[in-house]
Amino acid sequence: MPRATPLHAIRPVGRVPRASAKAGRKQVPRAAASLADDASLQTTTRRIAESITAAIVERRLMPGTKLAEQKIADIFKVSRTIVRQALHQLSRDKLVTLEQARGARVAQPSVEEARQVFEVRHMLESAMIKRAASQLTPAHIADLRAHLRDEQAAVQRTDVSGRTQLLADFHVVLARMLDNDALAGILRELVSRSSLISLMYQSAHSAEHSFAEHVAIVDALEKRDARAAVKLMQNHLHNVERNLRLNPRVPDLESVLRPED
User: Fold this and answer.
1) Is CATH 1.10.10.10 the classification given to domain 7-106?
2) Cα four-point dihedral sign 170, 210, 132, 140
3) CA nearest 49: which of 201, 202, 200, 188?
4) What is the pTM of this model?
5) Which CATH superfamily is domain 111-242 in?
6) Do domains 7-106 and 111-242 have the same CATH topology?
C-alpha cells in the first residue's frame, strides 16, 4: 500500500470564497446579506468536501490519514467550524470517520463493507447500462469516446492519479447521461467508496485492462446491444472486485515462526 501523504495533498477544487462577506453590507438589505453569507458558506463547505474526496479518489490521501481541522482550515483560509461541516458531510458519505477525542480520519472500510459496496454496484450498474443501451444518443457516444481518449492518454503516460480519477469517472459520466441526478449522486458516492476500498485491498491492478473493458462497453452501447453491454459491465465490476484481496491468506503460525535449520 502506498505511504500516507500529508494534508497538503488536499488541493482546493476551484476558488474557495471567504467565509464572510463584510464588504458592501451597508449597501444591501440585511436579509439579502444574510442569504449571500449562507450561500457563500455552503459553497465553501462543498468545495472543501470535494477537494478531500478528490484527494481520496486520486490516492493522494490514504485510508486512516488524520484530517486535522486546524490544518485544513489553514489550507482553505476558513474557520474550523466550516471545516467541521465538510467533515460531517464526508462522514455521512462514509469517506471519513469521526471519533470523539480522536477527530477525523479517512475511513478504513472493512472487508464486509467492501463486499457490500460492490454488490450494490453490480445491481445498480447492470440496470443503468441496460437503460443506457436504449437511450444514449450518437452525441453521448461521441462524448464517451472523448472520455476514453483521456483515459488512454493518462494510462500511457503513467499518470496514476489522473487515470484513477478518469477510470472511476467513466461510471459517473454514464449515469449523468441518463439525466438522473439521484442516480449520478448515488453512483458517485459508491465509486468514491470503491476507490477508498481499492487503496486498502487492491492487488496489482491493470489500468490498461480496465480501459479496454470500458472501450468494449462503449462499443456495445453504440450498437445498442443491451445484453452484451450488461454482461460486459458485470464482468468489468467482477474483475475489479476480483483484484481486491478480500480473502487474505492467514499464515500458519508454525511455518512463520519455525527457526531455520
Assistant:
1) yes
2) positive
3) 188
4) 0.63
5) GntR ligand-binding domain-like (1.20.120.530)
6) no
From first to last of the 261 residues of the chain, give the pLDDT tens digit: 445 556 666 777 665 555 444 444 455 566 555 555 667 788 899 999 988 988 887 778 888 899 999 999 999 999 999 999 999 999 988 889 998 888 999 998 888 888 899 999 999 999 999 999 999 999 999 999 999 999 999 888 876 667 777 888 999 999 999 999 999 999 988 988 887 777 666 543 567 888 999 999 999 999 999 999 999 999 999 988 887 765 544 445 444 444 554
Domain borders along the chain are 7-106, 111-242
> What grid cell was written down for 181?
441526478
Gap between the Cα atoms of 33 and 27, Å rounded? 9
Q: Are strands 96-99 and 66-67 parallel, antiparallel or unpaired?
A: unpaired
Cell (9 digits) for 87 = 467533515
